């Protein structure tokens, strides 16, 4: 079997064991993914679905959805956690660490540059043009994800009702995301108690068994202690350097708390962080928080990267004994570190146990309900994001022709011509930039 994309020509064995995919090949893919993972969680999940399941076939659809359902239960960015999980499946603990780190490293560097430019100059017309071109491409990616994930996740068709209920709950009644996921799990469990086993999606043959875990308690203790050390060590060093009352130490504590309660995605956590950073701590202004979300939308990686911008601008506005750029850089790094560190701990701790229970009928039924709810969440994003991009003036106004045409072109490229997502995303950004410069 030959994988698509830049790794074409490298022989990949069927997914029968975690050694089937050579580590250098996986390393190249995770590096590439870090630069093209635009579109928020739905877009990023769509890219991984397209690459890892449909094209390279490194992981089966059933395993992909099982991993996604678990990641949806965790606080933090589910797309990055999914990358950690799949990296762990392929190459063990280090595979998960590499996959998760490379998922965010490019966006850390890119967003730092954008944040510095924003802080120094305060206006980014070229960025606005790029955003205008990226958004239609992202809408197309989300629509493709909806079709492909939905066609597989909503089998049997009785799961359509759970997906529809999730969409209605989020879109019309604004039910908090954690309650939607919890309710979907309960409905999936109840459904599993009353349907015949033959109605469920059959498990794939030749499944990845996952890395061996001969001493689970010892391994879990090692990961937990390592995570605590990696969290406490930088805090002590930071406090020794700048003092316990410094802004960066306050950021370390606050964003650690935020990372543990970030159920509901980047928009939910941004509302929580903005309320604290703007109203309680007075670190940034409301306008800066909104601008930060726009900048985060232009970068690859999780949308929760907006917190790095908040950390950067908070320290830029209140530099203390450091220079503005040094203070802002320290604030950005502190925020990013404590935001993503828990993701690795949660996934690497929980994945072996979730894998062990994968054959449990009750767990599989509950997770099938959660996976169906994911389809409803993607549909909600498609409607909300698509409306904002294609109908900026609302339903009573004509659509944005530029955005509409670019979305249709991107859809045709993805569905009809099987163009790689990276070229669709980059092409949209280039067209948007050219339009802004010409206009």
Q: What distance lies between the first and last C-alpha atoms, to the nearest angstrom?
A: 47 Å
H-E order: HHHHHHHHHHHHHHHH
- What Rg do the Cα atoms give? 22 Å
* Major β-sheet annotation: none
* Global morphology: globular
Count of structural domains: 1
- How does the helix and strand content classify structurally? mainly alpha
Number of strands: 0
Strand content: under 5%
Q: List the quaternary state of the chains.
A: single chain
Q: What is the average of the pLDDT values?
A: 83
Work out the helicity level: over 70%
Low-confidence blocks of residues: 1-19, 201-206
Counting H and I runs of at least 4 residues, what is the number of helices? Answer: 16
What's the helix and strand layout?
Elements: H1 23-36, H2 40-55, H3 61-72, H4 78-121, H5 125-153, H6 160-171, H7 177-194, H8 216-242, H9 247-260, H10 265-280, H11 286-298, H12 306-317, H13 324-356, H14 361-390, H15 401-415, H16 421-438
Helix pairs in contact: 1-4, 2-4, 2-5, 3-4, 3-14, 4-12, 4-13, 5-11, 5-14, 5-15, 5-16, 6-7, 6-14, 7-14, 8-13, 9-12, 9-13, 10-12, 11-12, 12-13, 15-16
Describe the model:
By secondary structure, this protein is mainly alpha-helical. The chain has one domain (19-198, 218-439). Helix content is 74%, strand content 0%. It contains 16 helices and no strands. Helix 9 runs antiparallel to helix 12 (306-317) and helix 11 (286-298) crosses helix 12 (306-317). The longest helix is centred in the first third of the chain and has 44 residues, at 78-121. The termini are far apart.
């Amino acid at each position: 079997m030959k994988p698509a994309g830049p790794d074409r020509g490298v022989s990949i064995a069927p997914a029968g064991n975690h050694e089937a995919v050579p580590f250098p090949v996986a390393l190249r893919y995770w590096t590439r993914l870090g630069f093209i993972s635009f579109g928020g969680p739905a877009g990023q999940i769509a890219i991984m679905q397209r690459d890892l399941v449909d094209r390279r076939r490194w992981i089966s659809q059933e395993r992909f959805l099982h991993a996604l359902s678990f990641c949806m239960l965790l606080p933090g960015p589910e797309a990055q956690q999914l990358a950690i999980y799949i990296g762990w499946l392929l190459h063990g603990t280090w595979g998960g660490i590499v996959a998760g780190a490379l998922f965010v490293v490019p966006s850390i560097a890119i967003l730092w540059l954008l944040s510095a430019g924003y802080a120094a100059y305060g206006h980014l017309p070229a960025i606005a043009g790029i955003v205008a071109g990226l958004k239609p491409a992202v809408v197309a990616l989300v629509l493709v994800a909806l079709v492909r994930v939905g066609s597989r996740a909503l089998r049997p068709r009785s799961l359509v009702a759970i997906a529809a209920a999730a969409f209605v709950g989020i879109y019309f009644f604004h039910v908090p995301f954690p309650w939607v996921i919890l309710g979907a799990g309960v409905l999936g469990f109840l459904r599993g108690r009353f349907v015949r086993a033959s109605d469920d999606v059959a498990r794939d043959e030749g499944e990845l068994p996952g890395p061996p875990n001969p001493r689970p308690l010892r391994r879990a203790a090692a990961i937990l202690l390592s995570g605590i050390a990696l969290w406490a060590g930088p805090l002590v060093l930071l406090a020794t350097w700048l003092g316990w009352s410094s802004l960066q130490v306050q950021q370390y504590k606050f964003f650690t708390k935020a990372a543990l309660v970030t159920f509901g995605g980047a928009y939910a956590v941004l509302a929580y962080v903005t309320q604290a950073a703007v109203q309680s701590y007075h670190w940034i202004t409301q306008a800066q928080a909104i601008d930060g979300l726009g900048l985060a939308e232009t970068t690859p990686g999780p949308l929760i990267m907006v917190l790095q911008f908040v950390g950067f601008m908070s320290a830029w506005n209140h530099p203390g004994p450091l220079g503005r750029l040094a203070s802002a850089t320290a604030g950005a790094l502190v925020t990013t570190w404590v935001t993503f560190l828990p993701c690795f701990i949660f996934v690497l701790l929980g994945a072996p146990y979730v894998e062990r229970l994968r054959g449990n009928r009750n767990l599989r039924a509950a997770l099938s309900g959660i996976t169906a709810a994911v389809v409803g969440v993607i549909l909600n994003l498609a409607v909300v994001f698509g409306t904002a991009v294609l109908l900026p003036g609302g339903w009573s106004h004509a659509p944005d022709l530029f955005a509409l045409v670019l979305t249709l072109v991107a859809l045709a490229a993805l569905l009809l011509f099987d163009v790689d997502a990276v070229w669709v995303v980059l092409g949209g950004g280039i067209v948007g930039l050219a339009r802004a410069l010409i206009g």
